[in-house]
Amino acid sequence: GQTGKLMYVMHNSEYPLSCFALFESGPCLIADANFDILMVKLKGFFQNAKANKIESRGTRYQYCDFLVKVGTVTMGPSARGISVEVEYCPCVIANDCWNLLMEFMQSFMGNHTPGIPSVFGTKHDSIYSPADTMVQYMDLFNKIRKQQQVPVAGIR
Questions:
Q1: According to the UniProt entry, where is the signal peptide (predicted)?
Q2: Burial, 113: exposed, middle or buried (Cβ in 10 Å; 0-12, 13-18, 19+)?
Q3: pLDDT tens for each residue of the chain, 156 residues long
């Protein structure tokens, strides 16, 4: 009788032994890679939505202290967008290096440089974690999913 909440199970090649479970408007659970197997055993409580599989695959570059990952976001068999992840490796407090990250991104993204991610607003002076990266990927994937739901009509 209760309405279900969505939980997204995500993986990141930078953390191959971890599995991330993000709840809609809630926390991010970090578990070991066997979490997927546990979810299969709990299929009576959770409904799997394989049709919604979305992923970003690409190349990882390192330039001095910066790590840049450029990926193609695919949903099913077709490409839906591009993801760009930039990390300044020496800094663990995201707000402390945001201006430096912006300047670096503007050097190759120009006016397509994004604004400050919403995850930074809640972190303030705390340590940035892999879960924060996964939340940002989830935000990107949700934006791409919403774009797919908009019907296109009258294009010639």
A1: none
A2: middle
A3: 566 677 888 999 999 999 999 887 778 889 998 888 888 787 777 766 666 788 999 999 999 999 999 999 998 888 999 999 999 999 888 888 888 999 999 999 998 888 888 777 766 678 888 888 998 898 898 888 888 665 544 443
Q: Where are the beta strands (DSSP E) in the chain?
A: 7-10, 18-23, 28-32, 54-63, 66-75, 78-88
Q: Report how far residue 7's alpha carbon sits from residue 47's, in angstroms, rounded to the nearest whole number.
A: 10
CB within 8 A of 141, min separation 6: which ones? Answer: 8, 54, 73
What's the start-to-end Cα distance of the chain, in Å? 46
The total number of residues written for the chain in this structure = 156
DSSP state of 16: T
**How far, in Å, CA of 137 to CA of 134, rounded?**
5
